[in-house]
Amino acid sequence: xxxxxxxxxxxxxxxxxxxxxxxxxxxxxxxxxxxxxxxxxxxxxxxxxxxxxxxxxxxxxxxxxxxxxxxxxxxxxxxxxxxxxxxxxxxxxxxxxxxxxxxxxxxxxxxxxxxxxxxxxxxxxxxxxxxxxxxxxxxxxxxxxxxxxxxxxxxxxxxxxxxxxxxxxxxxxxxxxxxxxxxxxxxxxxxxxxxxxxxxxxxxxxxxxxxxxxxxxxxxxxxxxxxxxxxxxxxxxxxxxxxxxxxxxxxxxxxxxxx
Length: 259
Prior knowledge:
0% strand; mainly alpha; globular
């Protein structure tokens, strides 16, 4: 993580994506390092510090928060548990406010957007030679096998966030709706509306689009019933949220079971 911490925005590259996704995957396992209190404290402190490219920190913080939840289930109780839960929620909220969903969608998954753009052009009957050349130039330098690995890892991460961090998402949704309402009424104390929930829905759409059954874990929980995430999502009322919700649902419907 020290190398990632020092990567400036101008140097964000394919190599950065490789290292970042590998780190996210390493935090998605029950590593013996998670039993080392000094490692846990050091990692948490690092994620609360300053990074050259803050969205990288936010992406790691998102995955680290899921790690911390797993640890707390076995290691904490009573007032200690409540204090740590508040710390984790603050870490997640900070990551989301740092536009982590947009970063993962537009930067880490940039190769996927290029693929989807090519699919659109390939579907056009009068697909011109110059567009074929454009599609050729759109080819990512990320290995195709690793591209699917990236998709799977982000699918796991965001699925975890959508399930475990739902109280945080609900709070952010309400704040965004309140800000839109206050702005529409011309209130002087209205805060500038944010778009974090839209960015989350757009990210899920990118992860699921054209990938059969990738949306299944967002549809159905381990108990076989509709996920709490989906029950919450379909109840959003703000127009921007609803537009992105429909796009997300359409992408999640890819595959026989999901459809």
